[in-house]
Amino acid sequence: MAIWRPSASDANKKASVASSGNIFRADPDKSLPAVADYPVDSVPYNEVFRYLGMGTGTPDNALQEKVEQAAERALKLARPRAALRVFRLQNTQPISLEGSRLKLTGSDIQQFLKSAREAAVFVVTLGIAIDRELQRLSATSALDELVFDAVATALVERAADAVSARVVAYAASQDMHATGRFSPGYGDLPLDCQADLLASVDAMRLLGVTLTASNLMVPTKSVSAVMGIGQNVSAGTDDGAANSEGACRICKLRDFCALRKTGRTCRG
């Protein structure tokens, strides 16, 4: 069965705020909410330009202005929200998760989770309004659509970082560590596990995320992933310089990290 379950008090709290339209938020360290908002207040422009094929080149003023306008629009429309559960791993081939039909096949995910005791499974989405804006732009300006698509891609990855940071904090609260994230389609983990992955976190009911016949998610700006949790896993949040200020400084999860706010790190 899944490791995390809401307590009776958590369930009552969730019910009590539902009518007011607020989002249930669990303690960021000690527990993981089954569904929650993960607000993102900025877009990493360097990532947007990379998605646009700029590399290390300097964009001209016209493109910079388009990106800024698209980012402002995307931040208004996006509603980053994630469904998340933690499962105990059964170290078989393929890897299975207790209480879930999800099977993780392939040597790459086997290596990725080799020292993990548990797996955090999540789906995060920006919501359908982003897709509608992309559809609108496709009928008016191919360039504007391209720029907005790059902005939205950077934004959903940023939201996935926020979810990952929550998992890292949870792992630390259990005296364990967390890996980075691994998604269907990475390495030899096939996309056809998407249906069971989404079902394992109830993504259709909680988020409205569905799949096309080719196992692509709708809304399109959605990310599904697995993270390993254990005492001896390779951390996905630093460069090996555990507990150093330098490691935190370069970590892409730092803006969302609850541990940093308390003067701690994910490595101890």
TrEMBL record:
Pfam family, one: Met_synt_B12
Molecular function terms from GO: methionine synthase activity
Protein name: AdoMet activation domain-containing protein
Residues annotated as domain AdoMet activation: 119-228
